[in-house]
Specification:
- The chain is mainly alpha-helical.
- The chain is built from six helices and two strands.
- The chain has a two-stranded antiparallel sheet.
- Helix 3 crosses helix 4.
- The protein starts with a helix and ends with a helix.
- About 4% of the residues have low confidence.
Length: 198
């Protein structure tokens, strides 16, 4: 239980950090590269984007962590096959394969969707561990790719909304900073002039 909580916290942390980096960079670009400032709708959109990217980042991180355990899962499946049968050349009984899959799901906290597409029709018990490993690997890869596409879609929609709802200010943040600096430089001679007149 502690291992699952620790793994979940780690995934959430990495997902939040990645989302914070992306949203922070996006806000920085809007503030420095544009002559318009973000509207309240833009800031709400940025907040929603952070939440959505955190969720997707958490799922992606979890997928990568589970992908790193595939070899261990396959080795565990081999041990299960060896301890539950006398001949690895026998065909895979549906009852036994279901039992092994449920045991792996419980031990490694594998989502059911990663195991539901595994079929052992016409295969012997010796091939079962490698089939489990390759199918989980393929399912996780597809899952991670889908999460990346969802993240990219959220990012594109957020950029469009933030760009369309900007408010005109006439100057970008960098331009306002330069103007403020030049104004301070212009004030100094004026003060010196007043001292001379006195």
């Amino acid at each position: 239980m502690f291992e699952l909580v620790s793994l979940s916290f780690s995934c959430i942390l990495w997902g939040a950090l990645a989302a914070l980096l992306i949203v922070g960079l996006l806000l920085f670009l809007f503030m420095t590269m544009s002559r318009k400032q973000l509207s309240p709708v833009g800031y709400v959109t940025a907040a929603l984007l952070f939440i959505l990217l955190t969720i997707q980042g958490t799922l992606i991180t979890g997928g990568f962590k589970l992908k790193g355990m595939v070899e261990d899962i396959q080795q565990n499946a081999e041990l299960m096959v060896q301890t539950t049968t006398t001949s690895v050349q026998d065909m895979v009984p549906s009852e036994q394969s279901e039992k092994i899959l449920r045991k792996l799901e419980k031990d490694y906290h594998i989502p059911t969707t990663f195991l539901s597409d595994i079929h052992f029709d016409g295969e012997n018990l010796q091939a079962m561990p490698s089939l489990i490993g390759s199918n989980i690997q393929e399912s996780i890869s597809d899952y991670i790719i889908r999460r990346f596409f969802w993240s990219f879609g959220f990012l594109v929609v957020a950029i469009i909304v933030m760009a369309v709802t900007r408010e005109t200010t006439g100057l970008s943040y960098s331009a306002r900073s330069r103007n403020a600096g030049s104004s301070r430089n212009q004030i100094r001679p004026t003060r010196q002039t007043r001292r001379i007149r006195r």
